[in-house]
Every structure is written in C-alpha cells, then in structure tokens.
Amino acid sequence: MTVIPERPTGADTRPHRRTRQRGDAFAVSGAAVASLSATALLFTYLTPFTGTVGFIVVAYLLFLACYTLLTWLDEPGPAVRDRLAGVAVHSLGFLVLAALIVVVGYTFAQGAKALPHANFFTADMSVTGPLDPLTMGGILHAAIGTLEQMAISLAITVPLGITCAVYLSEVRGPGTRFVRTVVEAMTALPSIVAGLFVFAAIVLVLGFGKSGFAASLAISVMMLPIIIRAADVVLRLVPRTLREASLTLGASQWRTVWHVVLPTARSGLTTSVILGAARGIGETSPVLLTAGFTKTLNADPFSGPQISLPLATYEFTRSPEPSMVARGFGTAAALMALVLVLFVIARLIGGRGAGHLSARQARARTRSSARDARRFTRDGDTLVQPTVAAPPPTTTPPPPGASP
Amino acid sequence: MTATLTPTKPPARAVPRRLTQRAGPADRVFRGVARSAGMTVLLMMLLVGGFLLIRGREALDVAGWSFFTTEEWAPEGGRFGIAAVLTGTLLIAAVAIAIAVPLSVGTALYISEYAPARLKRFLVNLVDLMAAVPSVVYGLWGAFLMEGSVLGVARWIATWIGYGPFAVDGVDPADPLASETVYTRSTLLAGLVVAMMVTPIASSVMREVFSQAPAGEREGAYALGATRWGMIRAVVLPYGKGGMIGGTMLGLGRALGETIGVVMTISLVYQIQPHILRAGASSISALIANRYGDASPFAVSALMAAGLTLFLLTLVVNFAASSIIARSRSGAEGDA
C-alpha cells in the first residue's frame, strides 16, 4: 500500500539560502539617510560648498563610506567588497538610465512651450521671423521634408539592401566575401563623410543642386550598410533544416527563398529596416551638407532646398531668440516622438528569433493550414495518399511559411 | 538499381559523384537579380571610397606631408592641415571613452548580473533606445542643460588639479570675479555628449559577452564560496575581456566620426588645444560641417582629404573592434 507522506507543517525546514539578508536593506537605507543629512549639514552650516553636482558627489561618497562601515561591522572582508561592488554597479546602471530619462524628458519638457499650438504642425516659417511669438509659424515644411526624404531613402535601401543580403546569405558566389567585407567597412563611414561625398559628387559635380533627393541619397549611403548587415545576420539565423526541407520537396531555390526563408525571417527583417530608418531619420550631418536650408514649404524633393526635422532643430537652436529655441526643442520633441514610435513598432514586431511566432501569428498559421487541409481533401484526396506520386512542385508549392 | 548488377570494371579509387545542379530559368533570373544587387551595392561603396580617394589626392598632392603638421585651415592660401583638428578629434574621443567605459561596463554588468530577470528585457530595450536617440537631441541636452553643470565641474578640476591637460591658461582660478566663459564649449563638454552616444553601443556588446560566460564556471566559483563580486572578478570579467575591448573600440569608432553633437557643443578653433577644460576645441567632422560652404573646388578637395583621413581612422578602429569581438565570440562557442 502506498502512503502519501505527510508534509511537515509549521516551520520551514529548508536551509537558509538567501544571499541578501534583510539587514542589508537596513544598511542601505541607514547609510542613505546618514549621508544625506551629513551632506546637508556640510553644505548649509559647516563649509562654504555650493552647487547641485557637488552635493550629489559628496553625498554619494559619504554614502559609500557609511555603507562600508555598516557592513564591515557584521560581515567579513570579501562580503564587504561584494556589497560595495554591488552598490557601485547598481549606481552606474541607474546613472545611465537616469541620463536617458533626463535627455528624453528634458527635450519634451522644453518642447512643451511650442507643442500645444496647433499652428506648430500646420504652418511653415515663410512669414514668421525670429521675434514672432509661438502662435505663428511651425514645422510643417520640415515634417514634409523628413517624410519625403525617408520615403525615397527607404525606396532605395529596402529592395537593394534586402536583395543584397539575400545574395550574401543565400545565393553566394565568388564575390560574396569581398562584398561582405566592403559592406562592413562602410558601416564605419562617418555620416558627415557620406554627406560630403554626395555634396561633392551629386551637388557640385553633377550640378544637381541642394535638394531633398540629394539628402535622401546621402541618408541611403549611410543606411544601406546598416540594413544589409542586420538583414544578413537575420537571414543566417533561419534554420538550415527549413531550407533543406523545401529543396527536398522539389522547390526551386527561388521558391525556397520567397516562400520559406523570407517569411521565416520576416519579423527580423522588418526590425532591421525599422531600426535602420530610426537611425536615418535622426541623422543631421549628411542632411546639413546636402539638403540646403529653406523657411518655406517645398514639397518637391527633386528641386530646390528642402529642410528636415533634425536639420530644423539644429537651425532653430542656433538662434539666440527664446521663441526660436523653443521651436527647436518642439521640433526635437516631434522627432523624438517619431523615433520612439518607430522603435516601439520595431520591438513589437521583432525581438523574436526566426521562426518564432506570436500567439496571433500562430493562430493564423493554424487557420491557414486547416484551410489547406480542407482544400486538399475537397480536391480529391490526392495529396494525402502516399502511394500516389506527388505532383510537380511548381503547381502546388508548399504553403507560405509552412510551420517547421 | 542497375548499380547492384556486376559492373564491367570497378573504379580504381572512390571518386565522389559530381553533383550538378541545373537551375531553371526562374532560378537563373533570381540569381542574376540578387547578384546584380550585390554588385550595385559594391559599386556604390567603392564609388564612395574611390571618389574620396581621388578628390582627396588633389589636395594631398599640393599639401604633401605638411597636411599632417599644419594647424590652420586656409586652402586658398595653400596653408592647410589637420594637425589641430585631428588632435581635437582624438582628444574628444578620449574624453568620451574615459566617461563611457565605466558607465557601459557598469550598465552591462548590472543588466547581465544584477538586474531581476523580469526587468532584463525591458532594460536591454532601453539601452537600445538610447542608441536610437538622434544625435541632435543629445546635442541639445549638452548645449542647453549640461553646459552649466559642466562649467562648475570644470572650474573645480581646474582649481584643484590644474596641470597637464586640465590646466586653463589665461584665468586665475583663485579670482572669484574671473570670467567663467573660458570653461564653456570645451573638449570636456563635447566628450560628455559623445560619451552618451557611445555608452549604449559599447554596453550592448559587453552585455552580450558577459551573459555568455559559461554557467559551469560561474557555479564552480559559487561552489568554492565566492561572493557574487568574487565570481564576477574571477569568471565574468576575464571571460568578457575581449568583448570589453571590442565594445570600447566600436564605441571609439563612433566617437571619432560623431558630428552634430560636437558641432553644437564646441567653438571650433584651428590650433592644437591640449587643454580639455578650456573653451575652444576642434574635430575633423566639425571642420567639415563648418567649412563645406567654401565653394571653391580645391577647398572641397581639401575637406575630402580630411574626411578620408577620418574614414581611414574609423575603418581601422572598426575592423580591429570586430575582429576582437569575433575572436571573443568564437571562444564562447568552443567552450560551450
């Protein structure tokens, strides 16, 4: 007869394995309180010290000293060093985080003066001077410029970049190594040098003039290596077995790439394109050299100067007038919001390895394969009979992205 | 099946059967398109490099070796060189790296070793977002918000250290009425802004390498009684050394080429300025951004030469970085 042993009730019999004791939290908070009050005393009564930065630095050093003393009272040497290192690593991590929050938050807070006015998004600067209030003028011309320049750059870089990545990872050939090395070298190209190239080659030599199109070319030269490298990495993550399964079923290489490799890597490819676009949208220096400067709306990217959001930010904030600086911060906030949206979309789509589906995608796959099964049985049971020879693959290719 | 019947003559030695692959017309078109895309990209990239080289040569031929020893920039007068701007570029990058390395090592260690597991993905995303923030936004932060704080810090350093690169000539730190403008728009401020752009790049490489440190060795260290910091010092840091060096160099490549954040935070001077706290700094990228308007073809050629130097510099740094990172990663695969 089997008897289920009774669990001992009451005291937990497991050995004590926690590495962080409760006393540690008391030590941290105690040291924090002690250091803050001591620094406040120093800064207000005892010494002539002033300044926020000084206060933070002194308080932090005092905190480290107090904390070391407190842990040293009841821990051996290695544990004291461990606690100190832990505090240092935590504070460095939080410092970077705080810096990011300050950078983004400061931009939005300063831009808040300009953003509430509707004309900021619907007007250009053609009739607005530096001394005019924020109720006049806006950044419509820069927003249109950014959208058009990005559209042109994406139209160039996405087909070219992804086809080149397919060449590097799928087609291969004698030149692949060389192309990959050159692309890698080009990721080192400083953006200002890309701008200088387009300025000298397109604007000066070919006499194209400063225009939105020239700016798009400069952005493309800069974005292309980024997209190719990211897409190449993503495509190489597609499992070999999927490719081989498709080829074994008799699919041609072209159909394998189109129906198996690219759909499997779709989320990763989208992410690499969006992140490349987020980099390109915020680039100022190549645009500075190639787009020219204008205060009026120019919807034609092929003639005449056309400004974009980062360039407008740069130009606005060079002015000493407070209203122009506020416009600059408003433009930066709009740009930052655009980058944030792109980034969040990229993370929602991507972040998953090749072939890993979200719950929604998995349900869609199940539905489509059920549909296929119904279609096959309705069409006369030919495919499920193993004795009948399979029809040539060109007439019924494997369903797109058939799950592994 | 016919092979099982008696062959007329057995082959002298086993030769692997040659597999021939006959591509259909669709495949041939597909390969042609892919190959031509690759060649187009190659052509574009070689065009950029070649154009820089050819146009830059004109100016280099005129200037000769004095291009690397002349401080001023007057291409029309024939006296131009990158001694000042190259020094400035290296100084700004050095300041940026000095600030960014502790920050990125700390962030990488925090994310890979200390952060609670459910926060990790969020933190990784935040660091990636930091890399996606446009440099003009960092420039605004540096030029408008940090300038005041950096001024105080710079005055403090000048007062209490005050020699070597920290010296500030032309002002007496003890004089409370001395003008403070000598401390603004300095190499230090530009380096701080560039450090913010470098930190996420370096940190993400380091975090990746740290998190690959073999679990067996970590557990071995713990089993021998190491504290968490003892384990990190004995296992994670030695293992991640390649990643730390590689990530730092990758950041250095970015720091050398950064433009708009530097242009917004320095006042450009055309002389070697070794004092990092003093107002006035220089960098190749800022030189190009400020002087591209000199429309004479020769001036543009001179700028091309400067740009080419910058590109070669970042190229060497980036290739060194990627080879170091690749070596540290291949080691990771070998151990696993």
UniProtKB/TrEMBL annotation, chain A:
One Pfam family per UniProt:
BPD_transp_1
Which domain of life does the protein's organism represent? Answer: Bacteria
Q: Which residues form the ABC transmembrane type-1 domain?
A: 143-350
Keywords, sorted A to Z:
Cell membrane, Membrane, Phosphate transport, Transmembrane, Transmembrane helix, Transport
Question: What is the annotated localization of this protein?
Answer: Cell membrane
Q: Name one GO biological process term.
A: phosphate ion transmembrane transport
Residues passing through the membrane, by range? 25-46, 52-73, 85-109, 150-168, 188-208, 214-235, 329-350
Compositionally biased, Basic and acidic residues: which spans?
A: 369-381
Q: Where is this region: Disordered?
A: 1-21, 356-404
Which coarse location class describes where this protein primarily resides? membrane
Q: Report the membrane topology from the UniProt record.
A: Multi-pass membrane protein
Q: Where is the composition biased (Pro residues)?
A: 389-404
Q: What are the record's GO terms for cellular component? A: plasma membrane
For this protein, what is any one GO molecular function term? phosphate transmembrane transporter activity
Family statement: Belongs to the binding-protein-dependent transport system permease family. CysTW subfamily.
The task this protein performs is described as: Part of the binding-protein-dependent transport system for phosphate; probably responsible for the translocation of the substrate across the membrane.
The name under which this protein is listed is Phosphate transport system permease protein PstA
In its UniProt entry, the species of origin is given as: Actinorhabdospora filicis
UniProtKB/TrEMBL annotation, chain B:
The residue ranges crossing the membrane are: 32-54, 80-110, 122-141, 182-202, 251-272, 298-321
GO biological processes: phosphate ion transport
Query: Where does this one sit in the cell?
Result: Cell membrane
Residues in ABC transmembrane type-1 domain copies: 86-321
Which Gene Ontology terms cover its molecular function? phosphate transmembrane transporter activity
Write out the entry's keywords from A to Z. Answer: Cell membrane, Membrane, Phosphate transport, Transmembrane, Transmembrane helix, Transport
Q: How does it sit in the membrane?
A: Multi-pass membrane protein
Query: InterPro entries attached here?
Result: MetI-like, MetI-like_sf, Phosphate_PstC, Phosphate_Transport_Permease
- Entry GO terms, CC: plasma membrane
Pfam families linked: BPD_transp_1
Which SUPFAM superfamilies does its entry note? MetI-like
Q: Which PROSITE patterns match?
A: ABC_TM1 (PS50928)
The text of the family note is: Belongs to the binding-protein-dependent transport system permease family. CysTW subfamily.
Role, per record: Part of the binding-protein-dependent transport system for phosphate; probably responsible for the translocation of the substrate across the membrane.
> How is this protein named in the record?
Phosphate transport system permease protein
Q: Which gene encodes it?
A: pstC
